[in-house]
Amino acid sequence: MESPDNKNAQKYVKSRSQSPVSSTAKGVVRHISPLQALRNNSGHRDELKDSQVDKNKVFQKFVTKENTKPQDFKLHTKERAVKRALFNYSIATKIYIEERQKRQLEKLHKMIEEEEVKLLRKEMIPRAQLMPYFDRPFFPQRSTRPLTIPREPRLKQVNGKCSATSTSCRVNFPIFNAIK
Fold it and tell me: For the region Disordered, what residue ranges are annotated (predicted)?
Protein backbone atom coordinates (compact mmCIF):
# COMPACT_ATOMS: atom_id res chain seq x y z
CA MET A 1 0.00 0.00 0.00
CA GLU A 2 1.09 3.50 -0.71
CA SER A 3 1.07 6.25 1.83
CA PRO A 4 -1.39 9.09 1.35
CA ASP A 5 1.47 11.61 1.07
CA ASN A 6 2.95 9.66 -1.82
CA LYS A 7 -0.43 9.59 -3.66
CA ASN A 8 -0.80 13.32 -3.31
CA ALA A 9 2.70 13.80 -4.67
CA GLN A 10 1.94 11.63 -7.73
CA LYS A 11 -1.30 13.51 -8.40
CA TYR A 12 0.61 16.77 -8.09
CA VAL A 13 3.24 15.58 -10.58
CA LYS A 14 0.55 14.45 -13.03
CA SER A 15 -1.34 17.69 -12.76
CA ARG A 16 1.86 19.67 -13.24
CA SER A 17 2.88 17.69 -16.31
CA GLN A 18 -0.45 18.43 -18.01
CA SER A 19 -0.23 22.16 -17.39
CA PRO A 20 1.19 24.38 -20.13
CA VAL A 21 4.10 25.44 -17.85
CA SER A 22 6.77 22.82 -17.21
CA SER A 23 9.72 23.10 -14.89
CA THR A 24 13.14 21.52 -14.80
CA ALA A 25 15.15 20.28 -11.86
CA LYS A 26 17.20 23.48 -11.72
CA GLY A 27 14.17 25.64 -11.09
CA VAL A 28 14.17 27.18 -14.58
CA VAL A 29 10.68 27.46 -16.03
CA ARG A 30 9.87 27.57 -19.75
CA HIS A 31 6.55 28.52 -21.14
CA ILE A 32 4.80 26.20 -23.63
CA SER A 33 1.80 27.59 -25.40
CA PRO A 34 -1.51 25.66 -25.13
CA LEU A 35 -1.46 24.90 -28.87
CA GLN A 36 1.89 23.18 -28.58
CA ALA A 37 0.60 21.14 -25.68
CA LEU A 38 -2.38 20.02 -27.77
CA ARG A 39 -0.16 19.10 -30.71
CA ASN A 40 2.14 17.09 -28.44
CA ASN A 41 -0.82 15.23 -26.99
CA SER A 42 -2.78 14.79 -30.28
CA GLY A 43 -0.31 12.77 -32.29
CA HIS A 44 3.14 12.22 -33.59
CA ARG A 45 2.54 13.33 -37.18
CA ASP A 46 3.29 16.92 -36.22
CA GLU A 47 6.34 15.97 -34.18
CA LEU A 48 8.74 16.66 -37.02
CA LYS A 49 7.25 20.10 -37.57
CA ASP A 50 7.28 20.83 -33.87
CA SER A 51 10.91 19.80 -33.52
CA GLN A 52 11.83 22.18 -36.35
CA VAL A 53 9.84 24.97 -34.72
CA ASP A 54 11.42 24.22 -31.36
CA LYS A 55 14.94 24.55 -32.79
CA ASN A 56 14.19 27.95 -34.28
CA LYS A 57 12.20 29.27 -31.35
CA VAL A 58 14.08 30.73 -28.41
CA PHE A 59 12.58 29.72 -25.13
CA GLN A 60 12.29 32.28 -22.39
CA LYS A 61 13.81 31.18 -19.13
CA PHE A 62 12.19 32.51 -16.01
CA VAL A 63 14.10 32.25 -12.80
CA THR A 64 11.89 31.41 -9.90
CA LYS A 65 12.69 33.42 -6.85
CA GLU A 66 12.10 32.26 -3.35
CA ASN A 67 10.02 34.38 -1.08
CA THR A 68 12.18 36.92 0.62
CA LYS A 69 12.50 36.59 4.33
CA PRO A 70 13.16 39.67 6.40
CA GLN A 71 16.59 39.63 7.94
CA ASP A 72 17.04 40.57 11.52
CA PHE A 73 18.70 43.94 11.73
CA LYS A 74 20.89 44.88 14.59
CA LEU A 75 20.79 48.32 16.09
CA HIS A 76 24.10 49.65 17.34
CA THR A 77 22.48 51.43 20.27
CA LYS A 78 23.08 48.51 22.61
CA GLU A 79 26.71 48.19 21.55
CA ARG A 80 27.21 51.93 21.92
CA ALA A 81 25.54 51.85 25.33
CA VAL A 82 27.92 49.11 26.46
CA LYS A 83 30.94 51.00 25.10
CA ARG A 84 29.75 54.20 26.72
CA ALA A 85 29.25 52.42 30.04
CA LEU A 86 32.80 51.03 29.85
CA PHE A 87 34.13 54.48 28.97
CA ASN A 88 32.24 56.10 31.85
CA TYR A 89 33.53 53.41 34.20
CA SER A 90 37.13 53.97 33.10
CA ILE A 91 36.78 57.75 33.54
CA ALA A 92 35.21 57.27 36.98
CA THR A 93 38.06 54.99 38.05
CA LYS A 94 40.65 57.50 36.81
CA ILE A 95 38.97 60.30 38.74
CA TYR A 96 38.73 58.10 41.84
CA ILE A 97 42.44 57.19 41.62
CA GLU A 98 43.44 60.84 41.15
CA GLU A 99 41.34 61.95 44.14
CA ARG A 100 42.80 59.15 46.24
CA GLN A 101 46.34 60.21 45.32
CA LYS A 102 45.51 63.83 46.15
CA ARG A 103 44.15 62.77 49.54
CA GLN A 104 47.29 60.74 50.22
CA LEU A 105 49.51 63.69 49.26
CA GLU A 106 47.50 66.05 51.45
CA LYS A 107 47.72 63.59 54.33
CA LEU A 108 51.49 63.30 53.85
CA HIS A 109 51.91 67.11 53.72
CA LYS A 110 49.78 67.46 56.82
CA MET A 111 51.92 64.92 58.68
CA ILE A 112 55.11 66.73 57.60
CA GLU A 113 53.71 70.08 58.75
CA GLU A 114 52.69 68.59 62.11
CA GLU A 115 56.21 67.22 62.60
CA GLU A 116 57.69 70.63 61.74
CA VAL A 117 55.35 72.32 64.21
CA LYS A 118 56.38 69.84 66.91
CA LEU A 119 60.06 70.58 66.23
CA LEU A 120 59.42 74.34 66.33
CA ARG A 121 57.56 73.99 69.61
CA LYS A 122 60.46 72.05 71.08
CA GLU A 123 62.85 74.78 69.94
CA MET A 124 60.61 77.53 71.29
CA ILE A 125 60.63 76.18 74.83
CA PRO A 126 62.12 78.96 76.95
CA ARG A 127 65.41 77.89 78.42
CA ALA A 128 67.36 79.61 81.10
CA GLN A 129 70.23 81.72 79.82
CA LEU A 130 73.65 81.43 81.30
CA MET A 131 74.48 83.92 83.98
CA PRO A 132 76.96 86.54 82.90
CA TYR A 133 80.35 86.56 84.50
CA PHE A 134 80.42 89.49 86.92
CA ASP A 135 83.91 88.85 88.08
CA ARG A 136 85.34 90.14 84.78
CA PRO A 137 84.23 93.59 83.75
CA PHE A 138 83.05 94.19 80.18
CA PHE A 139 85.19 96.42 77.96
CA PRO A 140 83.86 97.12 74.47
CA GLN A 141 86.42 96.71 71.69
CA ARG A 142 86.87 98.98 68.74
CA SER A 143 85.70 97.55 65.38
CA THR A 144 88.31 96.50 62.88
CA ARG A 145 86.16 97.33 59.87
CA PRO A 146 87.25 100.36 57.85
CA LEU A 147 85.08 103.46 57.96
CA THR A 148 82.86 104.27 54.99
CA ILE A 149 84.19 106.95 52.64
CA PRO A 150 81.59 109.61 51.86
CA ARG A 151 80.84 110.34 48.22
CA GLU A 152 79.09 113.18 46.53
CA PRO A 153 75.94 112.25 44.62
CA ARG A 154 76.38 112.13 40.86
CA LEU A 155 73.79 114.45 39.48
CA LYS A 156 75.46 114.89 36.12
CA GLN A 157 74.17 113.49 32.87
CA VAL A 158 74.91 109.76 32.61
CA ASN A 159 74.68 107.89 29.28
CA GLY A 160 72.74 110.64 27.50
CA LYS A 161 70.07 110.94 30.17
CA CYS A 162 69.18 114.29 31.67
CA SER A 163 68.99 114.91 35.37
CA ALA A 164 66.90 117.60 37.00
CA THR A 165 69.88 119.82 37.93
CA SER A 166 71.94 119.58 34.75
CA THR A 167 72.24 122.82 32.77
CA SER A 168 71.99 121.21 29.36
CA CYS A 169 68.51 119.89 30.09
CA ARG A 170 67.20 123.13 31.58
CA VAL A 171 66.49 124.43 28.13
CA ASN A 172 63.84 121.81 27.73
CA PHE A 173 62.33 122.39 31.17
CA PRO A 174 61.29 126.07 31.72
CA ILE A 175 60.41 125.40 35.36
CA PHE A 176 64.07 124.90 36.24
CA ASN A 177 65.00 128.12 34.43
CA ALA A 178 62.74 130.04 36.82
CA ILE A 179 64.49 128.51 39.84
CA LYS A 180 67.81 130.26 39.04
Answer: 1-51
